[in-house]
Write a structure and sequence with these properties.
The complex is a heterodimer. Chain A is mainly α. Chain A is about 75% helix and about 0% strand. Helices cover about 75% and strands about 0% of the residues of chain B. The chains are: A mainly alpha, B mainly alpha.
Chain lengths: ~120, ~130
Amino acid sequence: MEKERKKPMDFLLGAVAGLLNGLFGAGGGVAVVPLLEKTGIEPKKAHATSISIILPISLLSSMFYLLGGQVPLGDAVMYLPLGLVGAAVGSLLLKKLSNQLLRRIFGAVMILSAIRIWMR
Amino acid sequence: MQGIIIAIVSFLSGITASLGLGGGFVLLIYLTAVANVDQMQAQGINLIFFLPIAALSLIFHAKNKLLDTRPLVPAIVGGLIGVCIGYGLGRLLGGEWIAKLFALFLFAVGLKELLHRKKSVPESPQKGG
């Protein structure tokens, strides 16, 4: 039986993601995924769904950064072509990976991210 | 040589972003540690990079029926409010101690994910569509 959706929880996880995204320019997803899983969504769907939440959030963050003069728009362009190829490959991988393996990979990435941020 | 590194970083960032792992992990490290880009600029580049990557990923994920639309509206509303607060806080505080707290949070959740044990009860079959 599916858990009944709790809108305050969804609002909260979005707010946390937005807060992190605004502060760090990244990191919203790593908060959203575990919180989505807590609401009963399976890992693969949590990872995919997190992108649909982070995208509009990142759009707003990007506008703040651009208006603040913190990044010329063209600086990101050189990373896009192969980034898009990677996105296609990643989408295929997400379909194929088991939930358990995905959790392990995600866990390792978060730990490495934590170490990097701590040592910044 | 730099071209090859940028190619590899871009490709890996696209993969990790599409997997919902956060493409920023790879790109931010490259920009700040290797390319010596200022932190705030690196964050901005990462954000802009993410936009088309995420859009393309979502097209594929929707096609593969991996998206759950139920949390979207409240989560996005909360997220937009959170961004305004987070960006303002970052400009105000500099984020040093917040970064440490975030690092602790990431480490704790990462450990939990890494050590997660598969339940012995079989999961219910996925619904089609």
